[in-house]
Write a structure and sequence with these properties.
By secondary structure, the chain is mainly alpha-helical. About 70% of the residues lie in helices and about 0% in strands. The protein is built from three helices and no strands. The longest helix is centred in the middle third of the chain and has 15 residues. The protein is globular, with a radius of gyration of 12 Å.
Length: about 60
């Protein structure tokens, strides 16, 4: 059962795609879409970065 206290984030491969869009893409529309998706999912880019740091150290 899902824990209502624990935030639910998108699957890691989707998050990684958004990061790729934001950083690696040369298309400004894709960069904006990746950035906006991360902000929508996490509330801020800083929180997205914190989450990725946690999952990458596990």
């Amino acid at each position: 059962m899902l824990d209502p206290k624990k935030p639910q984030y998108p699957p890691l491969p989707l998050i990684q795609t958004w990061v790729w869009m934001m950083i690696e893409s040369r298309d400004p529309e894709l960069q904006d879409k990746g950035r906006n998706n991360l902000i929508s999912a996490f509330g801020s880019l800083a929180k997205a970065n914190e989450y990725l740091s946690k999952v990458n150290t596990k």
